[in-house]
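To close the chapter, one final illustration. This time we ask the reader to focus less on the individual chains and more on the assembly as a whole: which components sit near each other, and how the overall shape emerges from the parts.
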Amino acid sequence: MMRFVHVIVVAALVVAAVDVYKIKFESTVRAEQVARLAAEIKREREAIAALRAEWALLDNPARIQALVQRHLALKMMDPTQIEHLDRLPERPPMPPAPSSDGIAAIIDTLEPDFPTGAAAAPASTTAGVMR
Amino acid sequence: MNGRANTATPAAASWRRRIVESLLYGRSVDRARKAQARLGLAVLAFVLVYAIIALRLVLYAVAADTHSVRRGGSTDAVATARPDIIDRNGEILATDIKTPSLFAEPRRIIDPDEATELLAGVLPDLDSREVRDRLGSKRGFAWLKRDITPAQQQEVHHLGIPGIGFLAENKRVYPNGNELSHIIGHVNIDNQGIAGIEKWIDNRGLADLHRAGFGVDREQEPIRLGVDLRVQHALHDELVAARDKFKADAAAGIVFDVRTGEIVSMVSVPDYNPNNPREALEPSRINRLTTGVYEMGSTFKALTIAMALDSGKVTLNSSFDARGSLRYGHFNISDYHAQNRVLTVPEIFTYSSNVGAAKIALAQGVENHKAFLSKVGQLDRLRTELPESAEPIVPKHWGELNTVTIAFGHGLSVAPLQSVMGVAAIVNGGYLIPPTFLKRSQAEARAIAKRVVKPETSTAMRYLMRLNAEKGTATKADVKGFYVGGKTGTAEKVINGRYSKNRLMTDFMAVLPADDPRFLVLIMLDEPKPIPETHGFATSGWNAAPVAAKVISRIAPLLGLEPRFDLPTADHLILASAKEAR
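The assembled structure is written out below.
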């Protein structure tokens, strides 16, 4: 009876030791991982800070203004150029975009009364193919 | 004794054994119980040992790996980390970046000559003789070069010289250069704030934090200012141009939110680049708006008239005799735009009559005048977040003559920011709000605001300011669409104890929009020169006012003000609506 108990206890001891070792090993691996990630986060954060500083440098209004004055013909905005959206007049009807489709263009010249809106264009091309 | 017992004959063994036992353990001892107690003791000892081990394990699991933290801390942060400073929209005004610095441990260098040669190849701007000396010394640590680029760091790393290493240091950068120098201030080589908001950050506890060894990481809440970077740029740009155009010694400007007391923008040129703080030491580059005090000239008439209107003894229809000049002792006070007739209060304001303003102030009495100016904060030192501030120069014995001159802005020198605060109080409905560089909400401002004039007085003052832009001295500041009101001011500078006729300090105080003020804009020019375009004039209406107009047309859209073009004149819009309300 006692021997049986002893065997069980010894077996339990071995299992416990192995388990503890495994846990210890895993925890070491995890701790290393955490340290690595923490270092990486720190590095990334510093990189972000550096990039944000550089962005602010490039985004600086004085620099943009200098570039605009050198390269573009833009002028200072006048208060009269600001208007409410609902006070704007209706958008004038757009002239039809010149079609790049050669066949459609020919059809358009054949049927001058045919409206050449964007929506109607596919219909006219299929008609052209059918003929 | 035991040895002797064991060598005895077996016959005498049991008898002897009893003697030995009685000698060893005493006669009345039960050995079985003793053995049990010993076993118990052993069990207890083992339990204790295992308990300690278990406890240690738990502690290891709970507490962070202290070892690795210490290892990480050793390679960086010689200079302390500071919180970022951002503007009201979150744009970065000042930030820290980590820059590697190169150091050597000379004791561990094997061949100093070879190391010097290799380093000189990568870092050509290094003084090789000095480096050779440092590497050849027997010290444990020597800086070789602080603040190198990451590319250089890589190259030096690839050289693989033993005894050479890098430390990451925090370095403060100001991406906007000169534009915010006077607000933000700057730091020294160890990243400690020594001027402006930077110093304020240190004063409120960051320095203590650092001394205690904390605050080396970047995890600090950024400081949000009330300043708008875009407005700051526009103001800076226009002031630099104006200083050039009028060949002025200096130019300065403030944009002030009259509802919250936030300083949306503050520029004083010449300024300096905080990335190169040595420039800040030149005395001409001081911040004229907080550390300088000036006689503000006619803009003070706004305060004089507000005082008179608020007392109830004077209304907009009252009139004062402004004929000729006012003699006081051996002083002779005359008008620049002399009308030589009886003027009403609005006329005194729009013609900027010194005689009229003086008479208004005299009618109020010296004590009332003094009390009113004190109430609107013109007589005490104004303190903001900036560590630099200047005490106003108040006459020691305030007599009638002082009241006469102070009525039109001479004889009392105040910091320009202070006068902005005072004028803001008389146009915003009567609330004196201490200015701040930090972001502040309207509710917070209300909580600390102090009522100094009645709302009706404020309405009347807004009317006068607007009237002045419609047909007074400030017509050149009237930006169409923003309903600007304003008051010009020209003060003669004191040179060698006398007022000089041709060395002027001009300023312009604009309120926009005048019917429902949101912002106050102050433009100040120090000794502007007359130019052909101004027909030989150098007074405020010819230089400060048009500069203000340019600034306003640029910043108003940025500040969210909508241009309105179909507004009636001041008589209808401000006065009539005030009557309706009553």
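DSSP finds four helices and no strands in chain A. The mean pLDDT of chain A is 80. With these observations in hand, you are ready for the problems at the end of the chapter.
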